[in-house]
Automatic annotation (TrEMBL):
SUPFAM superfamilies, sorted: MOP-like (SSF50331), P-loop containing nucleoside triphosphate hydrolases (SSF52540)
Protein name: sn-glycerol-3-phosphate import ATP-binding protein UgpC
InterPro entries: AAA+_ATPase, ABC_transporter-like_ATP-bd, ABC_transporter-like_CS, ABC_transpr_MalK-like, ABC_transpr_MalK/UgpC-like, Mo/tungstate-bd_C_term_dom, NA-bd_OB-fold, P-loop_NTPase
Pfam families membership: ABC_tran
Signal peptide feature range: none
Length: 350
């Protein structure tokens, strides 16, 4: 059992703020993903939980006990890093066994524990090999097994898939999800890849510049982004955002007019997702504009449309065909519009 609580946690180096007033309770067995662009403070947050970085302000509690002053080895957490840091001279078996030796675990139990962990990551047939004789994906699985074998209360994973090629990333991602379910261990996972976050997480924390922007389930974050930054960071493609003016419930921007909005007069950022735009017969939509490019995705066609100076994405059926430069017409039903304050990007209304 491990519930982790961060209370007003901050990290500063001199006047530079790496993490600013982070508050969150991570439930026992929860899979929590810290997501954000490079430098937003994800790794620093995780390192503070691991005890590898001192907390400047605030408290970290595990199961209600303050752990700020505990050494990493006394925190009952297992970390998996982006670089696998395996011992090159030891074979896979010895690499996985190593944490058990260091911790003075009864040697009689080692074999069973190592074999169980290696079975979970499907490395049973590779136990005699040295790291140099393994693929990148297999090495990362050794690192996972080495974390599993300790039977920790918490897994901390820092971009564990980022050194793998695209195909391996997808299969290892599925394996991590399955493992976390099977082991039922609280997991904190750092990534800048929103697809990884959406597919793995029970809850996602989106960070920017050391500040938490939103905490929520993947669906909440996708359907109701708290601000324009989150909207632009989540989704593939990201949400279309247009700057414009509202007057009497009518949003106007270059080549765009959307009526019936419940928004105050003044500047506004309007967002919509590619899949929510509705293609309309030629010339009958709210927006008619030239196609900039088309991407055939297999299950759909993504149309990039040049609206004034901006490019917006509109998702069409997989059978949709047109040429670059053709005109396309579409509407943005006002119930699917996301409205954001033009100044600070905060979400308006529901
Ligand atoms: N020891 C340090 N001294 C000063 N600044 C630091 C130190 N470690 C990290 N930082 C700064 O703190 C900020 C947050 O770093 P952090 O590594 O947590 O970001 P991140 O979100 O994990 O990014 P990435 O995805 O690139 O790893 C960055 O701007 C970084 O340069």
């Amino acid at each position: 059992m491990a519930q982790i609580e961060l209370r007003n946690v901050s990290k500063r180096w001199g006047s530079f703020v790496g993490v600013d007033d982070f508050n969150l309770t991570i439930a026992d067995k929860e899979f929590l993903v810290l997501l954000g662009p490079s430098g937003c403070g994800k790794t620093t947050t995780m390192r503070m939980i691991a005890g590898l970085e001192d907390v400047t302000d605030g408290d970290i509690l595990v199961d209600g006990k303050r752990v700020n002053d505990l050494e990493p080895k006394d925190r009952d957490v297992s970390m998996v890093f982006q670089s696998y840091a395996l011992y090159p001279n030891m074979n896979v078996y010895e690499n996985i066994r190593f944490p058990l030796k260091v911790r003075g675990i009864d040697p009689k139990t080692h074999d069973e524990k190592v074999r169980r962990a290696s079975r979970m990551v499907e490395l049973d047939d590779f136990l005699h090999r040295k790291p140099a004789e393994l693929s990148g994906g297999q090495r990362q699985r050794v690192a996972l097994a080495r974390a599993i074998v300790r039977e920790p209360n918490v897994f901390l994973m820092d971009e564990p898939l980022s050194n793998l090629d695209a195909k391996l990333r997808v299969s290892t991602r599925a394996q991590i999800k399955n493992l976390s379910h099977e082991l039922a261990v609280t997991t904190i996972y750092v990534t800048h890849d929103q697809i990884e976050a959406m597919t793995l997480a029970d809850r996602v924390v989106v960070m920017k510049g050391g500040v938490v922007q939103q905490v929520g389930s993947p669906t909440e974050i996708y359907d109701r982004p708290a601000n324009a930054f989150v909207a632009s960071f989540i989704g593939s493609p990201a949400m279309n955002l247009m700057e414009g003016q509202v007057s009497g419930g009518v949003f106007s921007a270059a080549h765009v007019e959307i009526r019936g909005l419940n928004a105050p007069d003044g500047p506004l950022t309007l967002g919509f997702r590619a899949e929510d735009a509705a293609l309309a017969p030629q010339g009958s939509g709210q927006i008619t504009a030239p196609i900039y490019t088309l991407e055939l995705l297999g299950d759909a066609t993504m149309i990039s449309v040049r609206v004034g100076d901006a490019l917006v994405s509109v998702k069409a059926d997989k059978s949709y065909r047109a040429e670059i430069g053709d005109m396309v017409s579409f509407s943005i039903p006002n119930e699917i519009c996301h409205l954001f304050n033009a100044k600070d990007g905060a979400r308006l209304g529901d």
